[in-house]
What does this fold into?
Amino acid sequence: MQQLMSNNIVDLTVENFQQIILEVSKEKIVLIDFWAEGYEPCKELSPILEKIAGDYPDTLLLARVDCEREQQVAAQFGIRNLPTVMVVKDAQPVDGFAGMQPETEIRAMLGKYLPSPEDEFLAKAAELIASGDYSGAFPMAKQAFEINPDNIDSKYLYIDCLIETGAVPAAKELLAEIKLVDQDQRYHTLQGKVELAEQAADTPEIRALQEQAEANPDDLQVKVDLAVALYQVQRFEEALELLYGVLLKDFGFGEAKKLILDIINALPDGDSLKSGYRRKVYSLMY
It folds into this structure.
């Protein structure tokens, strides 16, 4: 029983009926799947319910009732058709359906009672941002955004993390996608952040080094110096591209290898630049 509970899927029986229906349903949503062997619709529906349960490990319990073995439990709920699914909240059935339903409709039904899957990641990211840890918040914000790109709160939080971790072009691109109806104060604040970041990233030193690099394309040290200057203003992608180009020409040149590995390691977990350039550099090393 405890092992099943830890995976948020349990067989509902006469013995644990009171615990699940009267106690657990006050802490999380209980989704009851009434099924029986030999019923093809039951066989088709069960994997869908298990998949959905896997998305809500902390807020949903899937309770499966084998109606042939647990006739008393099925009778308690007045089950007449299989499969039948019921949603129980605070010890009371609040929703459900009989027969097959597509996954989208089942999720829509549960959405009335469950938090959005991205909410947990959003809360963790916001907590880390409040303490100034944008690098730690980045993977959480990215996960929330990837789960539901249409959630405007996820999008704004992710854009903020992109700006603060140096991915200003990606942040600017996402900001441009936000519809007029969603452009609240957060939109204008982030726009201001992007403009300030772009201004700070275009220094006289960088412009001078760029001119030297263009005039002397074979001068690897100038490229390394430019990469360092770009890194200091969080223009990470350009810095990595320059250092990787240096390594392609001379893998042992100066501090190039150490610098590129330092930049890669400094990037937040979940950043595609981090994984992409790590693979590129390792492919040169081995």
In short: The two ends are 49 Å apart (CA to CA). The CA atoms of residues 159 and 174 lie 7 Å apart. Strands lie at 9-11, 29-35, 60-66, 84-89, 92-98.
